[in-house]
Design goal:
Shape: flat
CATH architecture of the largest domain: 2-Layer Sandwich
Oligomer: single chain
CATH topology of the largest domain: Histidine-containing Protein, Chain: A
Number of strands: 12
Helix content: 25-40%
Number of domains: 3
Structural class: alpha/beta
Largest sheet: 4 strands, mixed
């Protein structure tokens, strides 16, 4: 028998409404021109926002909704006239944002811009630096999109890297570690299994990237929400 604390299975209509509520709740998003459709737990976002940061935030907010299996973020970034910047202006602002970011090694991240789309190239030492570089430029005015082609510099891989990642998972209050399997081949880590939410899935990937010697994380974890 289901208990009062059990989570009711969400229909696609329930999920669509929950995502809409979450987008409306998030103050960084103007959701008036965002449309949502859901089929078999996979949500598709369409419509228009004023900048890339809003598009990214809309996808992030949607992933927070319990029961969402995947997100297709097809929102268009349509810059108001006052938001337009030349590629040169965007490249200059991006280079400065990266230079002033304490998480990043100096002069290791290169920026190119084409029609408002930023591409990041270069080599960093850790996965968190790769994420930090993308976060530093996605908020800039005039940006329509960001492509992160940064690589993580190879370094000696501890013989017990698999055990270290599994131990980190067990320490993490967010994760249900028993349902996640870790496979390693050199610095390449593959995660398999299932978790309850996107937050758990992203936390597992973040934690795996923190291990010394990791150069790539392939996240194959699937969502399996708890239902009544």
């Amino acid at each position: 028998m289901a208990t009062a604390s059990s989570t009711k299975k969400m229909t696609d209509a329930d999920l669509r409404m929950a995502i809409q509520d979450e987008l409306s709740w998030e103050p960084s998003i103007d959701d008036r021109e965002i449309a949502i459709s859901v089929k078999d737990g996979v949500a598709t976002l369409t419509g228009v926002v004023r900048n890339f940061f809003e598009k990214w935030e809309a996808g992030s907010a949607s992933r927070r909704v319990h029961g969402v299996k995947a997100i297709a973020n097809d929102i268009e970034v349509r810059l108001p006239g006052s938001f337009h910047r030349t590629d040169t202006d965007i490249a200059r602002a991006a280079a400065e944002a990266l230079t002033w970011n304490a998480a990043l090694p100096a002069d290791r991240v290169k920026v190119s811009v084409s029609e408002g789309h930023i591409t990041l190239n270069g080599e960093v030492d850790w996965g968190y630096q790769k994420a930090a570089a993308e976060a530093a430029v996605r908020r800039l005015l005039g940006v329509r999109g960001v492509t992160d082609e940064l690589t993580v510099k190879p370094m000696p891989v501890p013989a017990d890297i698999k055990a270290k990642i599994e131990a980190a998972f067990r320490r993490d209050a967010i994760l249900d570690a028993q349902n996640i399997k870790v496979e390693t081949k050199g610095g390449h880590v593959t995660l398999r299994g299932h978790v309850r939410t996107w937050v758990e899935r992203e936390e597992a990937e973040r934690s795996a990237w923190a291990a010394p010697g990791v150069t790539n994380v392939e996240n194959l974890i699937i969502l399996k929400p708890v239902t009544a």
